[in-house]
Amino acid sequence: MGELRAVMQAQRACRRFDPDGDVPDRDIELILDAAVHAPSAENSQPWVFVVVRSAEARAALSELWTAGWTAGGAEFVRSRTDDKVYADLDSGIMRGGFASAPIIVVVGADLERVPEAYAPSSVYPAAQNFLLAAADLGYGTCLTTGLTSMYVEPVRELLALPDSVLPMAAIYLGQPERRLGPPRRRPATESTYREHYKAPW
So what's the pLDDT on residue 39? Predict the structure, then answer.
């Protein structure tokens, strides 16, 4: 539990990657093996992972992200978050932070295995396992859903996904450009209640 807890408390979003950092296939396989040990609705295991290494495909995905950011995404995020988080996101999208990741893993749900209503609860736990396993191996990751929620059809076309596979997240993976500090989190007790909402823990 100590080692697991340490990884869980250290894992955080990375939005700037070392473009020369290597991620061997063996490490990707270890990460994916952890991912598929997540729970899913009725053990349907509907996850689909497309590991994108091609510079051309990664650039195309990054261009979609840039288009969404400049078409209103930036204003939406600025209205909801603080300056530091906004600047980090803007750097990731507009100044090459995400584009420098050597790998993008698009995570989807096979809707022939699970009803769409159960897709999030069946796919996002696998994505979380992916993030934790990558952190345990020393990699940086950033899970994003804007790309797959705003550009479902372009992502499907780019990756040759059938209509039965719903893209749900894109995970950027690579060696961090710099050492990542611990994530900022409010204490759990600030959002935990006893018996009913607003009753102090």
Answer: 97
Taking the CA atoms of residue 106, residue 111, residue 115 and residue 119 in that order, the dihedral angle to the nearest 10 degrees is -10
Condensed to tens digits (0 to 9), the pLDDT of residues 38-84 reads 999 999 999 999 999 999 999 898 888 777 777 777 788 888 888 88
Asked if 111 contacts 41 with a C-beta cutoff of 8 angstroms, the reply is: no
**Domains of the chain, start order:** 13-179 (3.40.109.10)
Task: List, in sequence order, every residue forming a beta bridge with 82; answer none if it has no partner.
Answer: none
The sign of the torsion formed by the CA atoms of 150, 153, 155, 156 equals positive
Q: Which of 112, 126, 113, 141 is nearest to 15 (CA)?
A: 141
pTM for the whole structure = 0.90
Cβ neighbour number for residue 73 with a 10 Å cutoff: 18
Sign of the CA dihedral with 56 first, then 60, 65, and 71 last: positive
